[in-house]
């Protein structure tokens, strides 16, 4: 989109954007060079300047979401950190999952742990907007980084904008869980950390949906399928830059993450809902979200 020059409506004005200095958190607004906030016109993730629209690209490796945050000139947005992630434990559901019967002496102990965890927990997530640059038969390139997966290649066949992320229960909850010596309490603490990271992933999904309006989305996670093994954590962390370290997540030589209750992946828009579980034959997986579909790999991905 370009403004037309006065007196010469038949020609488009050249692109001449001022440097972006300040971003306000409210969806769909920007502020540049001290101007008043104006609504964002055009696609989400694009910045409407004086004369044209360009993709919003700043050179700063980390952006913490806060109103009126200042950036240096020439900086490029790489990774956004969501720190104020709500965490509420449904005690009734937790008791049911942990098989703690009402009236037993364990109820009060589990309730006290849940209450303490909610006060201590600071789950976090980092994500960025990234663009698919090229696609081959069994791999694709996102922002100059190669990802090898036939399943991902097919899933992103008509997709060019994706949202890689790392979510974690947080170092605070991780250290808290190490304070328990009783095996049963350790087991409960691990489950509470699982609730924290799953809630953070849901929060990110809601945030992305509300802020960027991508439509229906699905996600893939390194290590969930043989087609996209755990070793693909490395390019994913490369894509996210210093974002994971900022939220306290480290990638080990084994490609596992610490804190262990952390999840990485890529959210992407899709017409047909995708679940890793539909291609996974492991029937007794506690995290299964969909039934295994025999023959789906051969029909769609080979």
User: Which consecutive residue ranges, at least 5 long each, have pLDDT under 50?
Assistant: 1-63, 65-76
What's the CATH class label of the largest domain? Alpha Beta
Radius of gyration: 22 Å
Query: How would a textbook summarize the main sheet?
Result: 9 strands, mixed
Q: N- to C-terminal separation?
A: 40 Å
Structural descriptors:
302 residues, alpha+beta, NADH Oxidase, 2 domains, 8 helices, globular, disordered N terminus
Task: Briefly say what this structure is.
The chain is of the alpha+beta class. The protein has 8 helices and 17 strands.
Describe what this molecule looks like in 3D.
- Helices cover 27% and strands 21% of the residues.
- It is α+β, with helices and mostly antiparallel strands and 302 residues long.
- The chain has two domains: 1-77, no CATH class; 91-300, NADH Oxidase, CATH 3.40.109.40.
- Strands 6, 8, 9, 10, 11, 12, 13, 14 and 17 form a nine-stranded mixed β-sheet that branches. It has a two-stranded antiparallel sheet with strand order 1-7. A two-stranded antiparallel sheet has the order 2-3.
- α2 (106-120) crosses α5.
- The longest helix is centred in the middle third of the chain and has 30 residues, at 183-212.
- 26% of the residues are buried.
List the helices and strands and how they pair.
Elements: E1 22-23, E2 29-30, E3 38-39, E4 46-48, E5 53-55, E6 62-64, E7 69-70, E8 79-82, H1 91-97, H2 106-120, E9 124-127, E10 130-135, E11 139-142, E12 145-148, H3 150-155, E13 161-168, H4 171-177, H5 183-212, E14 217-220, H6 233-240, H7 243-246, E15 250-251, E16 257-258, E17 262-269, H8 296-300
């Amino acid at each position: 989109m370009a403004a037309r020059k006065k007196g010469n409506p038949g020609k488009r004005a050249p692109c001449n954007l001022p440097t972006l200095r300040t971003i306000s958190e409210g969806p769909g607004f920007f502020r540049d060079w001290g101007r008043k906030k104006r609504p964002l016109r055009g696609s989400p993730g694009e910045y409407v300047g004086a004369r044209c629209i360009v993709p919003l690209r700043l050179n700063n490796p980390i952006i913490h979401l806060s109103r009126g945050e200042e950036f240096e000139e020439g900086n490029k947005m790489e990774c956004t950190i969501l720190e104020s992630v709500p965490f509420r434990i449904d005690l009734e559901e937790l008791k049911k999952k942990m098989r703690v019967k009402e009236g037993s002496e364990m109820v009060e102990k589990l309730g006290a742990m849940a209450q303490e965890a909610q006060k201590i927990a600071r789950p976090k997530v980092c994500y960025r907007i990234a663009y698919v640059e090229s696609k081959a038969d069994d791999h694709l390139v996102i922002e100059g980084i190669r990802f090898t997966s036939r399943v991902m290649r097919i899933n992103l066949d008509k997709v060019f904008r994706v949202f890689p992320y790392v979510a974690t229960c947080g170092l605070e909850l991780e250290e808290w869980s190490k304070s328990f010596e009783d095996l049963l309490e350790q087991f409960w603490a691990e489950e509470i950390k699982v609730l924290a990271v799953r809630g953070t992933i849901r929060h990110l999904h809601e945030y992305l949906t509300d802020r960027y309006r991508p439509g229906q989305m699905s996600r893939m996670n390194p290590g969930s399928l043989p087609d996209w093994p755990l070793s693909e954590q490395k390019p994913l962390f490369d894509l996210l830059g210093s974002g994971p370290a900022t939220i306290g997540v480290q990638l080990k030589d084994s490609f596992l993450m610490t804190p262990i209750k952390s999840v990485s992946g890529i959210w992407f828009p899709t017409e047909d809902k995708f679940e890793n579980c539909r291609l996974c034959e492991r029937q007794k997986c506690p995290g299964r979200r969909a039934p295994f579909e025999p023959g789906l790999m051969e029909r769609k991905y080979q």
